[in-house]
Model the fold of this input.
Amino acid sequence: MSSELRYTANTQLEHLHARYTGTGHADTNIYEWATHQHRDMCASIVGHPPLTSYLAIADGESIGRIKFEMTERMLQPCGPPPAKDDD
Amino acid sequence: MHLYNLTLQSPTAICHAIVGNFSGTRQQEIIVSRGTRLELLRPDTQTGKISTVLANDVFGSIRSLAAFRLTGGTKDYAIVGSDSGRIVILEYDSKTSSFVKVHLETFGKSGARRIVPGQYLATDPKGRSVMISAMEKAKLVYILNRDAAANLTISSPLEAHKNNAIIHHIVGVDVGFENPMYAALEVDYTEADQDPTGEAFHNTEKMLTFYELDLGLNHVVRKWSEPTDPRANLLVQVPGGQLANSTRFEGPSGVLVCCEDHVIYRHMDAPQHRVPIPRRRHPLEEKDRGLIIVAAVMHKMKGAFFFLLQSEEGDLYKATIEHEDEEVKALKIKYFDTVPVASSLCILKSGFLFVASEFGNHHFYQFQKLGDDDNEPEWSSTDYDSFGMRDPSSPLPSVYFRPRPLDNLALADQLSSLDPIIDSKVLNVLPESDTPQIFAACGRGAKSTFRTLRHGLEIEQLSAPSPLPGIPNAVWTTKVKEDDPFHRYIVLSFVNGTLVLQISEDIEEVQETGFLSQEPTLAVQQIGDDALLQVHPRGIRHILADKRVNEWKVPQGRTIVRATTNKRQVVVALSSAELVYFELDLEGQLNEYQDRKALGSTVLALSIGEVAPGRQRTPYLAVGCEDQTVRIVSLDPDNTLEIISLQALTAPPSSICIAEMLDTSIDKSQPTMFVNIGLQNGVLLRTVLDPISGQLTDTRTRFLGTRPVKLIRMMVQGNPSILALSSRSWLNYTHQGLLHFSPLISEPWNHACGLAAEQCPEGLIGITGNLLKIFEVPRLGTKLMQTSMPLSYTPRKFVTHPSNHYFYMIEADHRVMGEDAAKAKISELTGKGKAIDQDMLELAPEEFGRPKAAAGTWASCIRIIDPIENKTVKVIELDNNEAAFSLAVVSFSARGSEQFLCVGTAASTLLAPRSCSSGYIRTYSFKENGTELELVHKTEVDDVPTAMIAFQGRLAAGVGKALRIYEIGKKKLLRKVENNTFGSAIVTLNTQGSRIIVGDMQESVVYAVYKAPENRLLIFADDSQPRWTTATVMVDYVTVAAGDKFGNIFVNRLDSKVSDQVDEDPTGAGILHEKSILMGSPHKTKLLAHYHVGDIVTGLHKISLVAGGREVLLYTCLHGTIGILVPFVSKEDVDFISTLEQHMRTERLSLVGRDHLAWRGYYVPVKATVDGDLCEMFARLPGPKQSSIAGELDRTVGEVLKKLEQLRVTASGF
Done:
């Protein structure tokens, strides 16, 4: 597969991909991209105290609940992955 | 345009709080993180009051905070995890009262990123290491130790990463002195990401993993990992390890895993214990809704420990563990008390509980008892099969308790907090005030408040006013002996006499004090060791302790007009413009200096400073004369009564006061001698008196009021301070090492003086007319006085009325049942024959909150507020599950400009995805001068009306993505024109002329125009960047300032040519056919200024804060920040302040190691805005640093400080 080739051709890049979760590559599909985006967003919301407060006020929940639900959502923010084509 | 940002009120929310002995003494202190600030709070265990010792802006976002203490140490350090990509260890230095960065270790990129550690911190209970973790994957362990010189050392980081693992929480496990261990709640998403069927997602387990730091190998190993409850969210440390001097175990070690509805005790290879989290037995309870623990604290006492766990409803549970050595016998849980939902809980050894509320005021409670022997039911893991773990996947049966008022805790103190400010207005409604007030809709849910903020120090009246026989000319308080702790007499001078009152239990008149009562008094002083002194127009009475009186008489034909005294010196000015000087000799005799000094101009004011301890005299006298000069006269024996320096004034002086006050920006180590000169035109000059040369330097001026200024020296918190009276009263005092000048919020006083009495050690006597009142300044350093009024639900917006003074506010709470809905549900339940617990229904919502309902349930109301009386006039509850989202007062021209209140509501609104069953615009007419509202009609709309504004005698409303203009009709509002090409949803509307500025929820600010001839609503300009707008204000016709959801403030301007062109096009056909740019409108606005505040801006106002001052942009933010953006007036100022800012940046003042430029340019590079908060830290820099920076700027330190103060004072008056 081409992706294998690319990784073996450039071990440094492979290292970077392993190190920086979320870094895209030429074969990133929309699902992977969106999932990374959503995970980044959830992590950002939990990491910024004013944003958690903002959501908590809008939703009528406690900040602890918002943080918890956001972290839970990071597991699969965009639903299950699309079925792979076999060919 | 160039702006200067100043924070008037720093954020008041507390995100994290830790407790420890940070100053190394036995006293425990609390360090709190206010998001972007660190504060050290010191609770007074005697009085139960909390005071702020130190507050520091960190110029970064604090995400986690932990306290730790090295083994055998007595001092705690604070570790801060932030968005700087660095770990910081802070030490509190009590000598300089500052935080010192002991270590600053970089490990990753800056920013609150997913895989850069900083989100969670866990420390080893024995202080040997710390773990810092990210939201995903990354965990770093640092080993902490001390070197030969007992300095704290930090190792290079050890990695404990796990790829593709989301981390919910980490905690240090107490293992005594074995290798440090950490527990983490992790979820691995590898499988779930690969499986399209979704089965792997459902089977994903939440793992409780123990990491061991092998101190011998310097290596972290994953020791143990087992699945736990999939809805676990929080870990709590359980004590463990053996005590140093016995074989007894402190506890079983391990962790408490707090899950939805359950708490599980867990340790490696040990049986689990599970108990349910007790629920409130509320008739309206959502049975399916889980309950989670949001805050927890463990407390160790001698030989015992317990946990306080707090649920999201605010209920505290006490959890205890019964154990035999390391074997757990039972886990028990019971209801403890109900307090506000906390972001952090701290228990102090002295028996206090600090509750840092997530919203609203923070509370400080004292433990009355520990809930050991009350009737509260207790649930134990032994009540269930296999300690509640027979079937871990199915829940334990729900258990219930009844919340009750505080029993185990008693409220000791509150820290006021504005957090969250949801909407604000700035205007002057109070009749006696000349500066505007800030009105803020604060709080969340039933604890919401409407607050009025006034600039000034709050004063508290301690006693009922006592009437006096006449209107006094002056008032003094005096001790009788030098070493008396409190004042004995109050001396009042009248036109024709003097009255002496004695302070004991009560205040009563006394005779035979030695004071002359037939003459008015000019000065009163406790002089020498035990004598008193009275200066009256005809002479000086020196009253000795045995009531003998030595009298000095004025030469014939003259009188004393002014006098000034201290403990050893007396100076009087005669009507012949002569100065007479007396000094106390070593025998306690008052001796006149042989010469008198003729000045040639009538003396209007005199002042000498206090004698420094151990000194014979103070060397300088300040004399203010009618010829508009102030002279500094020497009292030194070498050149007594020689004029040393002279300063010309702009008006005749009315009062002078020399005081030695500490101001660390001028002198770090000792007080500076200030000469304060009050003028008859109400201006105060403050100059520094050089103690060596006697020259006056560094003059600063301030306008105090319309009356001649009167200055009084008094003591505040043991430091000299000055009370300045004019048409307003001001206090000049030292707080946290810096000099402050704040107005007092009081009626104007004619006279005042300080009062030290047993009942009020730091009081104030104020005299208005013939009434004597005693006051106290309870909160120094708080420059905004708050008055608050309770609300029922979370406030959303409020508006003012153009012709009456009432405010109209809408409130709405999500997941709460409205009153009608709740009643209907109750009657439905009773109809079904269910027993209703009436007591539960009667629980006060402001203490216990309201029961949570399902998403899409709303409670909402419209409230009429009288801001002058600070009370609610009327509340109109909304029915039909409607919630109000916007409102506007509109005078419809079709109804002869009659005013109506339009309220945009929506029924059964869901937030994500945003939807509602139906939107409405309710139109109310004003009745009874605006104190009543009458529903005229209700117009159905297709989406949530989120913004409204009056527009040219009609209503402009943002309904979802559409901007519409409505005309009033008989039965409904009539839609006249619509534009529905906005990006997401309209959140703000502003208008000027035919232009409407639309703030879009995600797509920044859009300029639209209404073309009446063709009845067209057209967009003609927008922003090239997406912005999540929260608040907007029009700065002028072409310029708009806005805040966004990520804490930025920006200013956009439209090219004035485009603006003119659009206005000149009568039909708008030109705009209609112009080519769009970047898939948007034909014109783009230009970014003029950009600044990251670090708090979400919820209100923006263009206002002048000082009477006759310049207009500034005032913003209020969610976490309680209030700040202003001041436009610079000159290019020189811009250059000067920007250069100063650059120099300040290189000082690396951020306590978390965040680069200042990167912080202020968090999302977009900071543009044309100078951070005044950073510049003002210049005052706190060490002296040599100050001089070197000032040298670079070609200024003196004094000039830099003066410029900074001038910028603050002229713009804000603060």
